[in-house]
Fold these 2 entries.
Entry 1:
Amino acid sequence: MSDTGGRAVDPQAVLQVESLTKSYQPDGSSPVLHGVDFEVQARELVSVVGPSGAGKTTLLNCITGILRPTSGDVRFAGGTVDGPPDRLAMVFQDYGRSLLPWLDVMGNVTLPLRRVVRDKARRAERALHVLESVGLNGAERKKPYQLSGGMQQRVAIARALAYQPILLVMDEPFASVDAQTREELEDLTLKLRKEYDMTIVLVTHDIDEAVYLSDRIIILAGSPTTVRGNLDVRLGRDRDQITTKALSEFNELRAIVHAGVRGQELHP
Amino acid sequence: MMRKAPARTPDLWTVPRHVLKLLSYIILPAFLIFLWWALTVHSTSFIFPKFTKIVSSLKNYWMTAHGMGELWSSLRNLMVGYAIAVGLGIIVGAWLGASKAVRQVFMPVIDFIRSIPPPVLLPLGVVLIGVGDDMRITVITFGSIWPILFATIEGIRSTEPLRLSMSSVFHLRRVDHWWRLVLPGASPHIISGMRTALQIAFVLIVISELMASSSGIGFEILQASRTFRYADVWAGAIVLGLLGVVLNLTFGLFAAAILRWRTAESRARGMS
């Protein structure tokens, strides 16, 4: 176990980010992230919120092992991340790029499974099951470009689910779809986390979305970026676009996050 | 929801596609042949023989077992040489395209080698490999590999960074990474390189037969010209032209099959 600055290390934590600092300069100057610290427990849905350019993508790339931290540590399921960890799946913002247009929906969903599940019939079975979960029954022979944006993102979500990850990381997953579709996909996310009992880290710049979906919100702000707030969202597990968003708690949380993102004082 | 293909832009004089095809493949060539016939019908020129003479040469010289044998010999060299160029070009191109370090080490040497015009290698090839088909295949491969190599490098380099991230996050197997992600993504580049390479390979059939050869269509044409059989030369040129058309059509079908996803995708996005 590495030094955690005196805080107790929770053995239950799926993801631990410990004093993470990342600089793109070879000498480590002008860091993008400075001393970022947070944990994600099993079955939690945690949003990471911050303004554009706050280093959210950098943080994600460190979590998924695509980038190495300049200093500090990212631990996933007990081990230090020094490359993309096994059993971590990701949904990217740009479904147009992350899905492969030369493969049909089935081909896209089963692509990561080819390593994990050797048997073709079992791969297809798993894919069909998740496709049903995301509401895409019967679309398996369609090509991504034959589907609407929202449905393409459902394919990307299905691909991640079929992989059966311990942790699902979503990078601005609903930023490229219209408002109506966005609400549908948010509710789909809530449904899926119940159904699959998953741990999810969601990166977003949308404060409403973060409050609506999360159990906890990590607020990033400043330059270099640090954690400005670590906020519990106690809105219960059953949420609804209309009634949940009308709750006074919802609006209070929203105001707090908003202030935090702007770099103002937090009044929880 | 399904997307509808956008309506095609209306032309001023809209000609149905199959009518255009009929026009371009039958009527226009027929007209040109007629013109050729009409202009040479009273010809007494040695170099421009009557068209009927060319037709009889086609029949009696090229459409014989001997003529077809020569054509096949050339075609075989072309296909073998081209196939090696495609295979080698894609493999080496993928290797160079995937790593900047590898590129930096090898590019200067590759730039030097490809600057040598292939015909220059003919005399060397004769000395090193001999005068047989091996030498001709080598020349065809050497001349046509470059567009494929460079197109592949470019295609691999332009792989979406997001797709590479996706591949590494999901730990795609090497074979899936290459065959299902990188190479299909690079296929539009690779196909266009292969198209250029085919033109070059086609020219090199004839060039490779100009020296120390005793078979092939290029050799036959050269032989006919040396013995002043100009009707046979013209007929040979026509045979080569027809072969070129057939090769291009075949390649077009192949390319369309490989790039079907791309055509459909851009149509769905309304960019075609």
Note: Residues 179-196 of chain A form the longest helix (18 residues).
Entry 2:
Amino acid sequence: MAVLVIADHDGSALRDSTHKTVTAAQALSGEIDVLVYGEGVDGVAGQAAKIAGVRKVLVSQSAALKQDLAEDVSTLIAGLAGSYDTVAVPASSSGKNVAPRVAALLDVSLISDVLQVVDGSTFVRPIYAGNALETVQTSEAKKVLTVRPTAFKPAGEGGSAAIEAVAAPAAFGKSRFVSEEKVKSDRPELGSARVVVSGGRALGSAEEFNAVLDPLADRLGAAVGASRAAVDAGYAPNDYQVGQTGKVVAPDIYIAIGISGAIQHLAGMKDSKVIVAINKDPEAPIFGVADFGLVEDYKTAVPALMKALG
Amino acid sequence: MKILVPVKRVLDYNVKVRVKADQSGVDLSNVKMSMNPFDEIAVEEATRLKEKGVVTEIVAVSIGPAQARDTIVTALTIGADRGILIQTDQDVEPLAVAKLLKAVIEQEKPDLVIMGKQAIDGDNNATGQMLAALTGWPQATFASKVVIEGTEALVTREVDGGLQTVGVQLPAVITTDLRLNEPRYASLPNIMKAKKKPLDVKAVADYGVDVAPRLKVVKVAEPPKRGAGKKVADAAELVADLKAAGVL
Ligand SMILES: Cc1cc2nc3c(=O)[nH]c(=O)nc-3n(C[C@H](O)[C@H](O)[C@H](O)COP(=O)(O)OP(=O)(O)OC[C@H]3O[C@@H](n4cnc5c(N)ncnc54)[C@H](O)[C@@H]3O)c2cc1C
Ligand SMILES: Nc1ncnc2c1ncn2[C@@H]1O[C@H](COP(=O)(O)O)[C@@H](O)[C@H]1O
């Protein structure tokens, strides 16, 4: 039976986590619909319709949906779920907020952070900060999943799905959007960047963090990440945090600068293709997972790296 | 105003995780167990609201084995007034935990539930949102700041791309993120006081909730090991190696 994939977008463009969730859905069914919710998102729906393998795109628009209020969004999704066997949601902060609420409205479990679809009812997911992988099987009539985008390749383009409007639910009313502070950046998004350079507590201040990481990130076309210690100390904004409780990334190159490599940090980056660590302590645990380790003070190593990159 | 704080006993976050050889689960014998770090933050936040005079009573609830009593005592030490242990040796899944918590809410009638965003054993990140759905309450997840203004909680949330602030009408469910606060250390007088605070022990049957697992754990395996690679002498060698690896 069919799968409903919930689109992840920024109001004007679809994020590739949507394409990756479609790939996960393809392992479950050939009938995949995508739900795009928000306001003024006809363009996004058009992009979703072009994903290869998508049957239909549903679009629902209202102010509450634009503000991504979990109560309204979950009412919408749970209301549509009747026609689907599975609801698959990208494991973004928005998806993690909404999917469990949808599951409870449907009286089913949530299977979160799916890494692999074994068969129609069996899934692999990380537990204990990725230190163990759990294979779970469900016999429930409906499945609600969050999908870890880094574990799947994006579905291609070339589709031409029909687009259908669906009514927004009546406003929930007991929650309201007050404000948001989004970090503006011209860099690629952390979750989908090909290269990530991350800084840790060693950087010592926000000024130093930017002075060291920005030129390197610019040179490599990289996204910038950080350890929790760096974020807590105010060197970097909260949404830079990589790890168990931050973002999960799997770029081609992950460069950890002045990061010790606590298990909670490794949980967010150990599936990167190539890991580089720059740390002056040869015993730092990060070297245990690094493909290339440079034992050196970042103050000399990063300028030398810039020079070697040319 | 009354706050309910659900707290879970989990493997201490500093303990190295060992997967059992028969792949039936993670080895929890003879290892240090602690309160889930996010729940400690939840108890701390409730305690601060009490110290500000916004809150009059904090009730900590745990669902778990007899030893989860220690987890409740930790909550009482930080500042909770009363504890409820729903004792069971079964692994209770998030949906069933949410149903039990809903039953507790029906008896206790709190104005607010503050709980962890995720338990660091199962990493589900589900129970708070599920409880909000079952009670029909609004939710504010991943909180890094909580301000109570009359009948509304203004909550700053950590979201992809930055921060979002929402206002939720009470009663509501709030889940904590790491930056909400830094929990205090237990002082000796508070440890002594905690031992005298009331702690009720209940059974799952007292709440009439079906906690039979819905999911079958087929196996628990170790993730693919990622060995240490090579140490490079300098940045030039690093760049050469990255080029050779085909990623640069
Ligand atoms: C429940 C929970 C969840 C958590 N979630 C996360 C998470 O999602 N992400 C995360 O990152 N952390 C997380 N943490 C925190 C984690 O345990 C570590 O505390 C944190 O990752 C440490 O950050 P760090 O490596 O920057 O700092 P440190 O551990 O202090 O390491 C700094 C490193 O810099 C090196 N160094 C110092 N000076 C220099 C120099 N001049 N040149 C080169 N190297 C230098 C040092 O040798 C050291 O290895 C979590 C913790 C808990 C309890
Ligand atoms: N067995 C339990 N007892 C008490 N609280 C729990 C239990 N399981 C989960 N919780 C609460 O739900 C939060 C989220 O857990 P989870 O959805 O399992 O990641 C935790 O931080 C706790 O506050």
Note: The longest strand of chain A covers residues 54-61.
